[in-house]
Amino acid sequence: MIDLTHIIKRFSYLILTFIILLCLTVATGFSVLQHHRKMLIEYSAANISDVYSINEQLTDIHMSVQAYYDHGVIDEGQIIHDLSLLDTTLATIKIQERDDLSAVKAIEKLQYNIDRYQLIINQSLKLSYDDQQQKALFSDFHLHYGQLQRDAGYVTQLLYQDLMQRMSTFENTNYVIFVALGILMLLLIISAIFFLKHLKSYLRKRERLESWYTLSSTVLSNVAESVMITDAKNKIIFVNPAFSKITGYDRSDVLGQNPDILSAKRHTPEFHDKFWLEIKNGGRWEGEVINAKKDGSSYHQWLSVVVLRDKKEKVANYVAVFSDITKRKEAEQILTRQAHYDLLTQLPNRRFLEERFQKAIARANRTKKKVAFLFLDIDDFKPVNDEFGHLAGDTVLKEVAKRLSNSIRETDCIGRL
User: Fold this and answer.
1) 143-195, pLDDT tens digit by residue?
2) What is the mean pLDDT of residues 368-385?
3) Angle in degrees, 0-180, between the axes of helices 101-126 and 132-222, rounded to the nearest 10
4) For labeling, which of 135, 185, 329, 339 is most exposed (least CB within 10 Å)?
5) Are strands 236-239 and 284-292 parallel, antiparallel or unpaired?
6) Contact 259, 320 (CB under 8 A)
7) How do 298-309 and 284-292 pair as beta strands?
8) Beta bridge partners of 89
């Protein structure tokens, strides 16, 4: 039998364990999201730091050139190093922001102006300090430097906006994930409650079915009638203990066999054809048959066969229930003989003789023939009983009956009135 409480208890533990694992997964997911958010901030902050570094490098270069313009002293190697560092920084930012077309275009514009700025510086360094052309170049340099500062500020603004947008996206993603996980947990709890309710109902139905199965098995094991079940191909798949008691066959002897092994070969092919025709058309058959036991002896059997069909109305099984009616048949024969024959002489009695006489008259009328009826009486029979006793009289009657029976034809009939 099913322990319903134990199953529900174990299932509840399983649901609780699943919920705990889900909570741990949620916590881990939020931890990963926070880590990615932190990396995003560091990444964007590094970009902004690079842009501020650009401004500082531009300032350093401008001060170096301005010092040369004012005093004629310049560190050419430092200027080349600052320009190279500036170009590398911009290239790195451009790669990192390749998905943002606005930032890429702004960086490319800044690189273009830096290249022009560097060109002006290189041209200035090639001229003498007092050259009027150099002074004109330095004037142009100041104009470009202002443009560079505005471009660098615009790039910084774009990167800051990208940072804010990414942070907002992550915040929205966190909110969506939190809501989705909350809904998922709620659905899980509702599903668990719904499932537990139906599981309880299912297990109760299963328990009732098992009770019916146990009851059916008990009935089949103790019923006096033999029960035999075959599959659609008429192969035996089940027999109860009464089957073995009646036929002598063990369960292992007949499983997988055709029921023909029980046949005593006493029925005609016409009988079998009629048998299967009624089963096919009506789905059942009931009647008396003669079958054989394992030891070869024949016995009379009252047989009932029912067809079981599946949902598609195809034959699934045949169920046969039968009992041994041999003793009943013998008792019927004794009663029939007692009702129609004289117990002492074993000759037909008055009732049976009258039935035979009526049939003979009817047959004679039909065939236009005659019927002979002879009445015999035994003379001086009473003195025999009186002098020698009733046992001697009975012996005389039996001997007379025997002699008369031996002197008539098979078609003739003799009886005692």
Assistant:
1) 666 666 676 666 667 767 776 776 677 666 666 667 776 777 777 777 777 77
2) 81
3) 150
4) 339
5) unpaired
6) yes
7) antiparallel
8) none
**Token pair for 38:** 């932190």
Judge contact between 121 and 65, C-beta under 8 A. yes
| pLDDT exceeds 80 at position 233 | yes
The DSSP annotation for 23-72 comes to HHHHHHHHHHHHHHHHHHHHHHHHHHHHHHHHHHHHHHHHHHHHHHHHHS
List the beta bridge partners of residue 284. 306
Tell me the DSSP string of 32-44.
HHHHHHHHHHHHH
What proportions of the chain, in percent to the nearest 5, are helix, strand and coil? 70, 10, 20
Exposed, middle or buried by CB within 10 Å (0-12, 13-18, 19+), for 357? middle
pTM of the predicted model, to two decimals?
Answer: 0.48
Nearest one of 203, 218, 111 to 155, comparing CA atoms: 111
Q: At residue 326, does pLDDT exceed 90?
A: no
Backbone CA torsion sign across 344, 349, 352, 356: positive
H helix count then E strand count, the chain: 11, 5
Q: Which residues contact 22 (CB under 8 A, 6 or more apart)?
A: 181, 184, 185, 188
